[in-house]
Design brief:
Length: about 180
């Protein structure tokens, strides 16, 4: 049996990275202040287990190539070519966004603080949202894994501009 560590790639889960390479935590935190939240044991047990490094790069607002190759350098691995879109959310609201169309909302921060991942509650709430209506979700960080999962279920989303540190607002609506 070998103790071979996993490769560091965009699809590597943050939790897997930190379990295999615990010495990379300070490297991550140095790359982006957003990664300081990884010190929170609740986020470490929930989000870090499902978020990939590609998603983390978007959360930290740093190019995925920089994130991957900095981590690889620090782990003593060779640099690689990374072919992934570095786009972050569009600052311009989509045509479907009208704040007065919000019919339901959830502040996910208490759930996350309690160690719960709010995806099932969000999906349950979204089942009652009709086309043209909006659902507002509040998180302490950009919830990329949740956004990606909800998007695969037939919803458009937009990250609102009122985002400040420790408060990120995401709007969802059924795709037309």
């Amino acid at each position: 049996m070998t103790d071979q560590k996993p490769d560091i790639l965009p699809a590597t889960k943050v939790g897997q990275l930190l379990e295999s390479y615990p010495d990379l935590e300070p490297v991550l935190i140095k790359l982006s202040p957003a990664f300081k939240k990884l010190k929170n044991p609740v986020l470490r047990k929930t989000v870090a287990k499902i978020a990939t490094l590609a998603q983390a790069a978007r959360i930290g607002k740093i190019p995925i190539r920089e994130l991957i190759n900095t981590l690889r350098d620090s782990a003593g691995l060779e640099q690689i070519a990374v072919e992934i879109d570095d786009a972050v959310t569009d600052p311009n609201p989509p045509s479907w966004f009208k704040v007065e169309k919000v019919t339901k909302s959830l502040d996910g921060r208490p759930m996350l603080d309690a160690g719960e991942f709010p995806l099932s509650k969000v999906l349950e709430d979204l089942a009652s949202i009709k086309p043209g209506e909006l659902y507002k979700f509040i998180a302490p960080f950009l919830p990329i894994p949740l956004i990606e999962k909800v998007s695969t279920k037939g919803y458009d989303c937009w990250v609102g501009q009122e985002n400040v540190e420790d408060k990120c607002i995401v709007y969802f609506t059924p795709k037309k």
